[in-house]
Design goal:
Distance between the termini: 30 Å
Order of helices and strands: EEHEHEHEH
Strand content: 25-35%
Largest sheet: 5 strands, mixed
CATH architecture: 2-Layer Sandwich
Shape: globular
Number of helices: 4
Number of strands: 5
Number of domains: 1
Helix content: 40-55%
Strand order of the largest sheet: 1-2-3-4-5
CATH superfamily: STAS domain
Structural class: alpha/beta
CATH topology: Transcription Regulator spoIIAA
Length: 112
């Protein structure tokens, strides 16, 4: 898994690619999002267009991060899901707790 960070004004975009299946890569994403909160960055978009596979560990990290951002007055939004990841979120009904956008630019604009 790789994570690329870009900034768009106050919004941080984390582009995640590869597999999020637990282990060191899940820890890396968790630490990255915790660091953003520690740095006062509260508006985050996860660009998941390059994420090929994810399991329950990956889902748990995203759910935990969403709760942490909301508790600190921020938000975590998802964008550009591939069909496999979108199906996973629908089956687990997580589309009811995450704001999901077709594009990264739409997710960024939603913070305005």
């Amino acid at each position: 898994m790789t994570i690329q960070e870009t900034q768009h004004n106050e919004v941080i975009v984390l582009s995640v690619s590869g597999e999020l299946m637990g282990g060191p890569e899940a820890l890396e994403l968790n630490e990255k999002m915790n660091q953003l909160l520690d740095d006062g960055r509260k508006k985050v978009v996860l660009d998941l267009h390059g994420l090929e596979r994810m399991n329950s560990s990956g889902l748990g990290i995203m759910i935990n991060a969403l709760g942490n951002f909301k508790q600190n007055g921020g938000d975590l939004k998802l964008a550009a899901l591939n069909p496999r990841i979108e199906h996973l979120l629908k089956v687990t009904r997580l589309t009811s707790i995450f704001e999901v956008y077709d594009t990264v630019s739409a997710a960024i604009a939603s913070f305005s």
